[in-house]
Structure formats: C-alpha cells, structure tokens
Design a protein that fits this description.
About 35% of the residues lie in helices and about 15% in strands. It is of the alpha/beta class. Strands 2-1-3-6-4-5 form a 6-stranded mixed beta sheet, sandwiched between helices. Helix 4 packs across helix 5. The chain is elongated.
C-alpha cells in the first residue's frame, strides 16, 4: 500500500496515511481515461442548435420569374440557399450527443486518474479542512501553505464555508467523494483531499 504524508492547514506534516491499492494503486488504463473524458464533455453538450432548411423558412412559394427570356439565371424559389433570407444547406438540428460507458469502465477510469495523481505526488491529504467563516483570503492562504494553487478540493461532506470560500478562486474547484470525476481531477494540477474524504472514497470505490 502507498503511504502519503498527512498535512494540517498550516502546511505542516502531522502524520502518514496508508492508501488502499484497490483504489489508489491500480494499473493505469489511458484508453478508459480518454473515453471517460470524451463522454463527460459530450454529455455536457446541450445539442439544441437549430437552423432552418429551405423547406422550413417562410415564403418562396412561387417562382420569382419565368424560366427563360429574362436574362437572369433560372430560379425556382426566393428561399433557396443562395438567396438572402433563404434556408441553410445541411442545417444543424437538435440532437443528443450522449455517449454511454459501462459502470465498471467509469470506475476503472476514476481509479486510474487517482492512482496517477498519487504517483505524480499531486495528491495532498489534509487531516481536516474547516473554516470558521466564509473568507476567500483564508482559503487562498491554506492552499498556499499546501503549495496547491490550481487545485480540486475534496471534502467528506458539502462544507458550505469551504465551498463558498473557494468559489471565487479562478483555479480552485470543490467536490465531494460522490461528485468527483475524471475530467475535474485531470484538469486541476493538485488534488487536495481530507482524511475523511479519502476513507469515504475507499469505501465507495474499493
């Protein structure tokens, strides 16, 4: 089992913690990680883009001029794509971008990125993360002590003071063990996790 150092909010070492190899010591599967990221980004798309084709725009029911003898090119409708106010060629229509992925594959991808963060020394465990008040400067100070400026902060429960204090920091995001995902973990340089959150993650995903 991998051992990681446990820090306090001042950035001082206060002990060590053993991580479960079933979650934090698996073989990294880059293919599943890639699939998980593509799936999340695709599923976030609304798919509501819409433009009208020549059959949907209003007007253009009659032939604008006779076929021959005018000197103009022949035209059948004023709503053809080459006309102002005409329809769009191959217009986009609402569609569903959803990509499906098996539950076991999603879990394996999550374990892979957690393992990679541990191996790259970008996984910081804090004994406790609690703020007495909502204060962005205090949250910034704590992350500075931990040398984690661009961080995903994972707490065992939805700690309101921590969430609201971190909300205004551009490169900081908060999550709980039930809301962590592959994309967010990869996007942030460092993952800062409380001891309680690590234990919850091991219970859920081991």
């Amino acid at each position: 089992m991998a051992n990681v150092t446990v820090y306090n909010m001042e950035g001082n070492e206060v002990g060590t913690m053993e991580l479960n190899d079933a979650v934090f010591g698996v073989e990294i599967n880059e293919h599943l990680v890639h699939m998980a990221v593509v799936r999340q980004l695709a599923n976030n798309r609304q798919g509501t883009q819409k433009a009208k084709t020549r059959s949907e725009v209003s007007g253009g029911g009659r032939k604008p001029w006779r076929q021959k003898g005018t000197g103009h090119a022949r035209q059948g409708s004023t709503r053809a794509p080459q006309w102002t106010g005409g329809g769009v060629v191959f217009a986009p229509v609402p569609r569903d971008y959803e990509i499906k992925m098996n539950k076991k594959e999603r879990r394996a991808a999550l374990k892979s990125v957690l393992t990679s963060k541990v191996q790259d020394n970008q996984f910081i465990v804090v004994d406790d993360l609690s703020l007495n008040e909502i204060k962005t400067k205090e949250m910034q100070r704590v992350l500075g002590n931990l040398k984690a400026q661009k961080a995903l902060v994972v707490t065992a429960d939805n700690n309101e003071n921590v969430v609201l204090s971190a909300r205004n920091l551009a490169d900081v995001q908060t999550a709980t063990p039930s809301t962590i995902n592959v994309y967010d973990i990869l996007k942030h340089g460092t993952v800062v996790v409380t001891k309680a959150a690590v234990e919850t993650i091991e219970e859920v995903y081991a």
